[in-house]
Amino acid sequence: MTTAKTVSKDFGFGEDEAMLRDMARRMLSERLPMDRLRKLVAEAPEPVYDKGERAPWDTQLWSEIVALGWTGLAVSEAEGGSDISLAGIAGIVEEVGRHALPSPLIPTLMASLVLRAASGEVAGQLLARIAGGATASLAITNDRGSWEPEHAPLIAREEAGALVLHGDARFVQDAFKADFLIASARLGETFVLCAVETDADGLRLEADHIHDLTRDQASAHFQGVRVSDAAVVSRDAASVLRAAWPGLLVLVSADLCGASERLLQTTVEYAKERVQFDRPIGFFQAVKHPLVDAMVEIDRARSLLYYAAAEIDAGIDKAEIAARMAKSAASDAAAFISDRAIQLHGGIGFTWEYGLHIHFKRNLHNQALFGDGVHQRKKLADLLIGPVSTSPNLGRDPAAT
To answer: What pLDDT does residue 285 have?
Structure first.
């Protein structure tokens, strides 16, 4: 007789998780206030936008984050990490989104989840590196944002006891901050995951032009990159990525919820202070009602987010459904509050100096990353009721799967 897996009543978010979240909030509030963030990423954007230079970030703050052990949050204690539940990690990532932290933390956590799903000796060694402060990112999607085997971004061939990789992986997050990439490739009839150092011969990173200045994104071009057997993470990449995908959606959803909450709070504070017709503008229903609607949407997304994290922590097989619901709700809530925040701030909301655009652009990027709300609902329909049509041209979506 087997025992049914259930989600804990508090979503696995107990005192330890709350303490970590509160510590992250205090630290980031002190070390990365809005004026510091604005000076860091928005004071001189021309080199990034016009010349393709690297997005700026605070390496000293990153050293403090490493010292706090955040890179090892998803790494087991046996490999030098803290093995925090995904619900606890989501709480910290919410604060990362709230403060729009420019750092490779989220892609490193994503790589950790993939490596954890892969298990094995090679994955364990890489996780130990991450726990020690190494950074990583995923190079697993093609130009349509798909990771699935039939859309593998890279082709591998065996040559003299090694794998040789060719092809282009797209949408690699914070690639220029990563020490190594977890790349997926088609090898004959198999689908493999490999670890590739970012300074490997034959690997070229090409910066993508994106509007979000709190991160960088690149296309990774593999031209004869050699990978030894000691760097092959898994020869069943499809199973690994399918198992890790709900966790990746949870991390992006947490970032969205945090940034959206910051936009809501900023707009509420402004509505209390800005006076028009001898009253604070928050007095008027045309301002109050959208803010209440935004609060409800963000709270709904956050509830789905932590439920999905709790299902993953509990090992529930259908956690992908909850994760896609969370990403759908978080993307829609982010779109709504981003629009209303700019609108309700009036003229000042459009200015570069005010800084509202930083979280606005971060939300835009995260909405599309791994598929927006519409895409997630299409995938949910497939999971719950099956594909609507077998036509190859009906229901196709260029967003990530």
So the answer is: 82
Side chain identity, residue 35: D
Instruction: State the burial class of residue 362 (Cβ atoms within 10 Å of its Cβ: 0-12, 13-18, 19+).
Output: buried
The bridge status of strand 162-173 relative to strand 217-228 is antiparallel
pLDDT average, residue stretch 187-196: 96
Q: Does domain 238-385 have CATH number 1.20.140.10?
A: yes
Give the Cα-Cα-Cα angle 254, 327, 263 (nearest 5 degrees): 50
Token pair listed for 167: 């092809």
Q: Spell 274-296 as b/e; 16+ CB within 10 A means b.
A: beeeeeebbeeeebeebbeebbe
Report the topology of domain 138-237.
Butyryl-CoA Dehydrogenase, subunit A; domain 2 (2.40.110)
Residue extents of the structural domains in the chain: 15-106+125-134, 138-237, 238-385
**38: nearest Cα among 363, 351, 341:** 351
Instruction: Give the model confidence (pLDDT) of 16-62 as tens digits.
Output: 889 999 999 999 999 999 999 999 998 888 888 887 788 899 999 99
Q: How much is the average pLDDT of 4-23?
A: 81
Percent of the chain with pLDDT over 70: 95
In angstroms, the CA 172 to CA 154 distance is 13
pTM listed for this prediction: 0.93
